[in-house]
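Hi, here's the filled form for the chain we discussed.

Project: internal
Contact: R.S.
Residues: 147
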Amino acid sequence: METQQSPRDRVLHTDDQLRDMIELLLRKAKQRQFWLLFIDERGCLGDPLMPMADYPEDPGESVRVDDLGEVSHGHLLMHRIGSMREMTGNAQVVLVWEHPGLHEPREVDRAWARAMAEQAEALDVPLRAQFTLFERGVRQMHPDDYV
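And the returned structure, exactly as it came back:
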C-alpha cells in the first residue's frame, strides 16, 4: 500500500509547483488580504501560514513604532516578516496578495509588491516570490508586473 505524501512534505522546486500549492491551499479570493507563507530549509511549505486583512492602502505611508522609529508601512511589514522567518527557522518568504475580482493585479497590489520587493532586498529578507490570488486562480507577480 502506497502512502500519500502530505502537501507539507512536497519539495517546491519551481515557482509553478509553488503556484499550484497556493492554489490548492487557498483556492480562490474571498476578501482583500494578503497571505504570508514560509518555505523551510527542505524547500517545502513551512509553518505558519498566515492571512492578514486590513493592511494599509499605501505601503509608502509613514508610521512610527517604538523599535524602528518612523518608517514606511512596507518597511515595517517586511521587517516583521523577516523577524518571523528567523524566529520560525524558515528559509524563504512568499507573499500572496488576495482580492476578489478579475485576473489582473490592481494598482494597490502592484504598489505593495514593489514595496515588499524593495524592502526585502534592503533588509536582506529572502523573498522567493509574490503571487496574486483571484476568484479564478493564482498568478505569479514578476518584477515586470510591479516596476
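Let me know if anything looks off before we file it.
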